[in-house]
Amino acid sequence: MKDLKHLIYFENLLQEANNELVQKAIADGDKALGYNCYYLPEVLLNLPGSFSSRLRAPNCTSPDVATYYMTNRNCPYVRSILERAIEGGYNYLNALFGVEACSTMERMEEHFELLHPVENHPFVTHIIDAPIKGDSTNLDYYKVELKEILNCLKDLGIDTSEAAMKKAIEDHNEISAIMQEISDMRKADNPVITGYEFHVIQLVSQVCPHKYIKPYLQETLEELRKRAPEKEFPFRVRVVLYGSEVDDPEFTKLIETCGAMVVADRYCFGMFPSRETIEIKAGETAFDAIARHYLETNLCARFMDPAKIDQRHDFLENLAKEFNADGIIIQNMKFCEFWSYEKVLASHIMINELNIPSCTIEKEYAIGSVGQLRTRFQAFVESLEIKKINS
Questions:
Q1: Which domains are present in the chain?
Q2: Which residue from 72, 117, 182, 356 has the fewest beta carbons nearer than 10 Å?
Q3: Nearest-angstrom CA–CA distance, 26 and 49
Q4: Crossing angle of helices 306-322 and 337-348, rounded to 10°
């Protein structure tokens, strides 16, 4: 297929957290608000005068200093984030809004307060407690926690009015509509976009100020509408990638070089559920709609109540069917307690109850040596091909 016009530019934007578009927004006077988790609504950090920056640690291969503070038995994602903070990689931030999604995530966020690695003024760190059920009581509690975020935003001089929130929802929905259409292109028998290309586009939509990245996304969508696919489907099988943090497109590229196109992505930093449309229902304020939407759509493995567990697995099953996937790759970040439990449970349900072939792996934050992963993926691809031949 013809190369996408902006793909190299997008790849370059992902090389640093403080990228060209982030610097442009700061120069315009906007506040840079960092966050790590879907529990913290992205839309609340994109009120007029501010922009969200989902934190990654690109090219971080050895979080040695952070390991001194957090030990090498903690999740490598959070250690890499802390390492990059100590290196000065987030000095552009005005705030870090954290979530007690897990003990290691909270510990990393607390070190932003204890070590003061971000050399910027003003800089605020605030951590919310996250609900573990999806019922009305947990929604009320979630609203209380999110209102504390609004108080912090007010202290930073950011408009948190109803009109401002409606504008942020409108902005979110415009980005989401673009990403939804691009994502749906992967449902085709012979898509005009690869999983790697989509992963790059999805990431820049999360780490760049919306007002500056949106024109590039719209232009890319128009380009894809006219793009001719390969003469024949260039992959051997189609898979859904499911699990914890995947913020390195090279991981998706690794899977695809083994012959499996990643047609849908339900993982932290993925399309689902981050790019769902937010609807303001009758009788709701914009704030109410945001809180309800993020609690309803959140598919984090931290949720332990039966209704949320069933929601996760129903959603995964539907993704596999909707995107015509031959199988599912279920991954968790090394030492991630919640997703390691979910990996075992989800693979059992997919394989034994739903008859959907699944492959489970554990990964480091930095890919590093890929030999073992490549062998696992190649074996899974071959098993899917054999299944198709025998069916």
A1: 7-160 (3.40.50.11890), 164-390 (3.40.50.11900)
A2: 72
A3: 10
A4: 60
pLDDT of the chain along its 391 residues, tens only? 899 999 999 999 999 999 999 999 999 999 999 999 999 999 999 999 999 999 999 989 889 999 999 988 899 999 999 999 999 999 999 999 999 989 899 999 999 999 999 999 999 999 999 999 999 999 999 999 999 999 999 999 999 999 999 999 999 999 999 999 999 999 999 999 999 999 999 999 999 999 999 999 999 999 999 999 999 999 999 999 999 999 999 999 999 999 999 999 999 999 999 999 999 999 999 999 999 999 999 999 999 899 999 999 999 999 999 999 999 999 999 999 999 999 999 999 999 999 999 999 999 998 877 889 999 999 999 999 999 888 7
With H, G, I as helix, E, B as strand and everything else as coil, classify residue 372: helix
Packing angle, helices 162-184 and 195-207, rounded to 10: 170
Task: Please report which helix (H) or strand (E) contains residue 26, including its range.
Answer: helix 20-27
Query: What CA–CA distances, in Å, run from 94 to 17, 109, 128, 136?
Result: 14, 14, 17, 33
8 A C-beta contact, residue 235 and residue 165:
no
The alpha carbon dihedral of 321, 324, 326, 332 has a sign of: negative
Hunting for tokens 């993704």 — which residue is that? 319
